[in-house]
Specification:
The complex is a heterodimer of chains A (about 150) and B (about 650). With about 150 residues, chain A is an alpha/beta fold. Helices cover about 30% and strands about 30% of the residues of chain A. Chain A has three helices and six strands, in the order H-E-H-E-E-E-E-E-H. The longest helix of chain A has about 30 residues, at about 5-35. Chain B is an alpha+beta fold and about 650 residues long.
Chain lengths: ~150, ~650
């Protein structure tokens, strides 16, 4: 083997190692950062693993929004028309958060069954329904969106 | 009448595109010069048609022609003129029209500035661009006609999405599309070269300035988009790893790799097949980006409608473009293998490393973006891949990139020695580690992230500067020598310095930002870092097409007032959507950002979001420097000179045609 060729082989070898490392990193990060989406019914049925970070979506129950304390913490019911869970969020809600609107919340389930969200998403379109939420809603009662 | 004219112009454009895509191509194969000469007039005819169509839609917006469904859905009589003009690309149909119009603009530019390119090559390039044009025009005419009538016409339109009523948003899509579509030129050159079977330095030289300009537009578009998101979305973030952002970032990463590998192909004749592949991928990812964003597959503010016919068309179109070009590649690429040798320590190796890192980064972002869609389509479940994944992949992959960027630019082609490079980089290494470790002490606490970021930024900046010193060392008159440095080198160095500035911005913003959501009643205040935010009150005000609650918040530092901020909560009268309009006091060293939440209780209190964002402007400044660097590099004199020289030597035209 000529020195030039050995060098080239070394270079290729290094690159293969580098790429393998990168792929390994990516897959590891990938596995530990996948976030699953559940419906309130699935949450009630105890499907999400305990203590896991996950997303839950549904419709904000009409008349359920309350602000205990100084008003920075909001509590509301989230439903898929079959089961309802209570969601708690501290901070500023997105502009389009409204009762009767479909939203997606990201967070963890507290042992008492309250879902503590660290992020609430509602989208900028008056007839918008997040696709995930639209998929899980059971037989909508009345009209679908609150315009 | 005018909308029908626009519709007709679109159909005419399709017919012309069919001619443009076939006649010159066949002419090039058969060596018929007159057929090849059809390319230019076809491009111009198409440009005129697209201009008429685009003008017609703009006219419909300006004159409030609500009998056009698209106008009725995206405009309103109260909408200011500027936003009526930008509303043309405010939604799906119009943005496709913009895409196709920009494509014909680029084709026109190729006929204008591509004078030095041999006729055979030019005919093939323009024919390929004609094919892309056919795809987009068909897509528009079959599934998303912007000129569709709505009868009877409503009296009032539904207004433009309030989020898009912002100067940044008016400019962002055209810039982004200039970049996306610009890669079609690089793609067309690559395909033309594959058909030709000859990939030489000349080909890379023709393709290079076009690719760099497209890359510049894409850089500007992404930078502006990030700035808009920060300004307008009211979350105070500048990048969310949102699928839509990723859709624009992936072609950028691969395009950046392409810009660099083109340099190797031009200067050294190496990486030929790889460069072609990158050109194909950049454009395919641009297409994927356009379609991901516009098809409604993705859950995001950018997504508009979901229509199965559109989705199907998109899939087929993508399959034809990607599959067709890869097949051509598989058939032709073995013939263009390069036989150039280079040492492990050489600029080629550094650029190879750059390419590998950029492409792997793009691939891992693609994985994170598409995986949820695939899982959903297979019906396994609904998952999402959040920012932690992207950060975990992006940061480790880009740190080595920052380590080699300045050094790679200093390395000699073919072979260099570690000893020579070490002489150049030892001081930059010492200084950047020392300063990088010490500088974070100036902030309220020392963190390793900030230290790492600043060290990397200093390293990139200092090695880039050292590149200049290397060029000037040993010259008698450094000033004269400096003036003789080609513009391409200045462009490259400016872009690399932009990376340094960008890293400073990211490192300091992510480490030292302070955010707080608080309840503030009139007269109350909140201390955030060194700043005191005092709420004066919230009053109603009226805008042209919205009503708003406007807060007044005074910011003090050491008892002295530094800013008065007026954040607003707007309700646009037509769509009745609330919109948060954040107030920002910008600065080179820090931004103060205030957004209103909601009214709380009787005493006039509001929930308020307060941000202190150090050095955030550096992120966009870095982006602008990269774009400007691209512009400098693309306008290097030698491209023009070489173009002229090539024009005088119509080398091997006849045999290439055969």
């Amino acid at each position: 083997m000529t020195p030039a060729r050995r060098k080239r082989l070394l270079l290729i070898g290094l690159m293969v190692v580098g790429i393998a490392l990168a792929v390994g990193l990516a897959l590891r990060a990938f596995n530990s950062n996948l976030m699953f989406f559940y419906s309130p019914s699935q949450v009630v049925a105890g499907e999400p693993p305990e203590g896991a970070l996950f997303r839950v979506g549904g419709m904000v129950v009409e008349g359920s929004v309350e602000r205990p304390g100084d008003g920075m913490t909001v509590r509301f019911g989230l439903t898929d028309n079959q089961h309802t869970i209570t969601v708690e969020y501290t901070g500023i809600l997105p502009d389009l958060f409204r009762e009767g609107q479909g939203i997606v919340a990201k967070g963890r389930l507290r042992p008492d069954g309250v879902f503590v969200a660290d992020e609430v998403l509602a989208k900028h379109d008056e007839n918008y329904m997040p696709p995930e939420v639209a998929g899980i809603m059971k037989k909508p009662q009345g009209t679908e969106t609150g315009r | 009448m005018i909308p029908e004219l626009g519709h007709f112009a679109l159909i005419l454009a399709l017919v012309v595109a069919l001619v443009q895509a076939t006649v010159p191509l066949v002419g090039a194969q058969l060596g018929r010069v007159s057929w090849m000469h059809m390319a230019r007039p076809a491009v111009w005819a198409q440009l005129i048609c697209m201009g008429v169509a685009y003008g017609a839609l703009t006219w419909a917006f300006v004159t409030h022609d609500f009998s056009v469904r698209y106008v009725a859905a995206n405009s309103n009589t109260a909408l200011p003129l500027m936003y009526r003009i930008s509303a043309v690309w405010g939604s799906h149909e119009g943005s496709l029209l913009l895409w196709a119009t920009i494509l014909s603009l680029w084709s026109g530019a190729v006929t204008l500035f591509g004078r030095g390119i041999p006729l055979v090559m030019l005919s093939r390039v323009l024919a390929v661009m004609g094919m892309i044009s056919i795809g987009f025009l068909l897509f528009m005419l079959l599934t998303s006609n912007p000129f569709e009538r709505l009868l009877p016409a409503p009296i009032e339109g539904r207004d433009l999405n309030p989020l898009l009523q912002d100067p940044g948003m008016a400019l962002h899509p055209p810039l982004l599309y200039m970049g996306y579509v610009g890669f079609s030129v690089a793609f067309a050159f690559a395909i033309a070269a594959l058909i030709d079977g000859r990939l030489d330095a000349a080909w890379a030289r023709w393709s290079r300035p076009w690719t760099t300009i497209a890359w510049m537009f894409l850089t500007l578009g992404i930078t502006l988009g990030s700035w808009w998101a920060y300004n307008e979305l009211g979350w105070g973030g500048w990048w969310f790893w949102d699928p839509v952002e990723n859709a624009s970032f992936m072609p950028w990463l691969v395009g950046t790799a392409l810009v660099h590998s083109l340099a190797v192909t031009e200067k050294r004749g190496a990486f030929k097949a790889w460069t072609v592949l990158l050109a194909v991928f950049s454009f395919s990812l641009s297409l994927l980006g356009t379609f991901l964003v516009r098809s409604g597959v993705l859950t995001s503010v950018h997504a508009f409608a979901t229509d199965p016919a559109r989705g199907l068309f998109i899939l087929v179109f993508l399959a034809v473009v990607v599959g067709g070009s890869l097949m051509l590649y598989a058939w032709r690429a073995p013939a263009v293998r390069s036989h150039v040798h280079f040492a492990p320590i050489s600029r080629e190796s550094a650029l190879l490393l750059n390419n590998v890192l950029l492409v792997v980064t793009a691939a891992s972002i693609l994985l994170g973006t598409l995986y949820p869609l695939i899982v959903d389509a297979l019906g396994i479940g609904k998952i999402s891949v959040g920012p932690p994944y992207f950060n975990a992949v992006f940061v480790p992959l880009t740190i080595p990139l920052a380590l080699v960027v300045g050094v790679g630019a200093m390395l000699r082609w073919k072979q260099d020695s570690l000893a020579r490079i070490w002489k150049h980089v030892r001081w930059p290494a010492v200084i950047s580690v020392a300063l990088g470790t010490l500088l974070p002490l100036l902030f309220d606490r020392w963190t390793w992230q900030a230290a790492l970021g600043l060290t990397l930024a200093l390293w990139v900046g200092l090695t880039t500067l050292e590149g200049f010193r290397d060029r000037l060392s040993g010259r008698d008159r450094p000033l004269a020598a400096f003036a003789r440095i080609p513009r391409g080198f200045h462009g490259m160095s400016l872009a690399h310095a932009g990376i340094a500035v960008f890293i400073v911005g990211i490192a300091l913003t992510t480490t030292y930002s302070v955010e707080k959501d608080v309840r503030l009643a009139p007269g109350e205040s909140w201390v955030l870092g060194a700043y005191e935010f005092r709420m004066v009150g919230v009053k109603p005000v009226q805008g042209p097409n919205y009503d708003a609650q406007r807060g007044e918040i005074r910011v003090f530092r050491d008892g002295e007032q530094v800013a008065v901020l007026y954040p607003e909560k707007r309700i646009y009268r037509v769509q009745r959507n609330p919109m948060t309009e954040a107030a920002i006091d910008p600065g080179l060293g820090r931004d103060l950002f205030v957004a209103l939440g909601e009214p709380l209780g009787e005493d006039g209190a509001w929930s308020v979001r307060l941000y202190y964002k150090p050095f955030i402007r550096w992120i966009w400044t870095g982006g602008l420097m990269m774009a400007l660097g691209g512009l400098l590099a693309a306008t290097d004199r030698r491209y023009r000179q070489l173009a002229r020289r090539d024009a005088r030597v119509p080398a091997g035209m006849a045999e290439a045609a055969a």
